[in-house]
Amino acid sequence: MHLGLAFIARHGKFGLIIGLVAGLLLPGLAAVMRPWIPEMVALLLFLTAFRIGPVEAVESLDALTRTAATALVLQLVLPLGFIACLWVFGLSLTPLAMAAVLVLAAPSVTGSANFSILLGHDPAPALRLLILGTAILPLTCIPVFFFLPELGGVGEVLRAAARLLSVILTAAVLGFALRYWGFRTLSDRNRASVDGVTVIALAVIVIALMSAIRPAWDRDPWELGFWLLAAFGINFGAQIVTYLGLSALGRRDAVPVSIVSGNRNFALFLVALPPETTEPLLVFLGCYQFPMYLTPTLLRRLYAPRPSAI
């Protein structure tokens, strides 16, 4: 069992690709699994918290302060800056522009720490950003919705954020508690086993998130191609720009922060949008899984650990 899970962990990027392919080829299975996404996300967070441990997650007060500042930049400064650019250049809020705003305003996806692990980097900064970013979302989303009333009401977003935060905190506390009282020291063998289980969980979750892709392909493959290119451009563009900027500043957490910068849980906002605007964004959500789950494969060379960072 240990050897099998360790093998899966070593080849985790291929497990993610298998999940993407399964989501495309098995639309019926994706539809059946979709209602179980919250439970699967909770399991993933539990495994991540257990793998990192409470001591490594907290690290220090300085780390928490830096994380809060980073979350404010990612979720408040960037979306408001993008909105300002739309206003300066007289651009309308097209579905593509709306998708970009929602991505920039959202907190981290739950798998960001796992992607850091697959790329050989410390996952703790990504987990801190996930927790703190979700916690401050009720504050950071209000200015964004104020300047863009087309996005709908804030109340539904706040309720969705509260539900997500409760899931995150519950799963994280349980994972930290089991690690602290049951497995204070995690051996390399056991850590590899946990990473293997996590890869399996990620591959299963993406199948459920791909339920809108196959119908979109059957309806209009050209439109699907447009949204797929947009998803790669927004996701990878944000990651690359963030990484180049943080690396120039010498930030040791450049990789996990960059992963979070491009991989955001913008699905939180869909509950507040009027029905006529959600359909293309649901297709975008499905397309968004491709750059997200291909990050450990396509950006591996960019994020390769460097001797100076050790």
UniProtKB/TrEMBL annotation:
Coiled-coil spans in chain: none
The UniProt transmembrane annotation reads 40-58, 70-90, 96-117, 129-148, 160-181, 193-213, 225-246
Q: Which Gene3D superfamilies match?
A: 1.20.1530.20
**UniProtKB keywords:** Membrane, Transmembrane, Transmembrane helix
Top-rank taxon of the source lineage equals: Bacteria
Task: Kindly provide the name given to this protein in its UniProt entry.
Answer: Bile acid:Na+ symporter, BASS family
Q: Write down the species.
A: Falsiruegeria litorea
Upper lineage: Bacteria, Pseudomonadati, Pseudomonadota, Alphaproteobacteria, Rhodobacterales
